[in-house]
Specification:
The protein has two domains: 75 residues, Glutaredoxin; 123 residues, Glutathione S-transferase Yfyf (Class Pi), Chain A, domain 2 (Up-down Bundle). The protein contains nine helices and four strands; from the N terminus they run E-H-E-H-E-E-H-H-H-H-H-H-H. Strands 2-1-3-4 form a four-stranded mixed beta sheet, covered by helices on one side.
Length: 217
């Protein structure tokens, strides 16, 4: 099997939407190579294959696929042990909750990239975490089996986890026990451990310092 090529940015900490793809590759034992580009000055060859200029992009079997949702579905369909259910209603429900995961991801990204995390209005994020805490079944989102929803949720929530470890003077997740239980289970999976690395929280804080989103600690 020829490895797929994952094109992403240059950073010690995996970009969150790339991280989703890496997790799925490890879950399904999909061989891959990584090509890193400067996302501040994207090369012309990349812009030719990625019209909106966003990472990740994959090249597989002579095809180019961009958009992390599309990549996840392609890999799920192409390789064994499908995570999306066959039943069309259940499949649509999974896709709906992936949409929810994307909404939560955008909220977390806005919080982190605001440069004013300690003054940020947390009401929307708290609402989304409360919904997640109510709906998640644990140990995974739908119960006993890992799903694409879990993979879509984890990367940005790891941002919050890193911030709670290293920066924030308060804990956002303490009020959501089921989310915390789910997070601990996800962090124990080898696909998460391998892809985020041992020092993921430190590397993430260094990345925020690099972009002056927080002062150097």
């Amino acid at each position: 099997m020829e490895p797929i090529e994952i094109i992403t940015g240059i950073t010690k900490y995996p970009a969150p939407f790339t991280h989703r793809v890496l997790i799925l590759c490890h879950e399904k034992n999909i061989p891959y190579t990584i090509t890193k580009i400067d996302t501040e000055e994207k090369p012309a060859w990349f812009l030719k294959i990625a019209p909106v200029g966003l990472i990740p992009v994959i090249r597989a079997n002579g095809h180019v696929i961009f958009d992390s949702n599309a990549i996840l579905e392609y890999l799920d369909n192409e390789f064994k042990s499908k995570l999306l259910p066959q039943d069309p209603v259940e499949c649509a429900q999974h896709r709906s909750w992936i949409g929810f995961a994307n909404e939560l991801s955008q909220e977390i990204a806005g919080f982190v990239k605001s440069g004013k995390m300690l003054q940020h209005d947390l009401s929307r994020m708290k609402y989304l975490f409360a919904v997640l805490n109510e709906k998640i079944k644990v140990p995974y989102f739908f119960g006993e089996k890992l799903s694409l929803v879990d993979i879509a949720l984890i990367s940005h929530i790891l941002w919050i986890d890193a911030l709670e470890q290293k920066y924030l003077p308060f804990k956002l997740t303490d009020k959501y026990p089921k989310v915390l239980e789910w997070l601990l289970r996800m962090k124990s999976r080898s696909s998460i451990c391998v892809t985020m690395g041992e020092n993921y929280a430190t590397h993430f804080i260094q990345l925020l310092e690099q972009y002056t989103l927080i002062e150097k600690m």
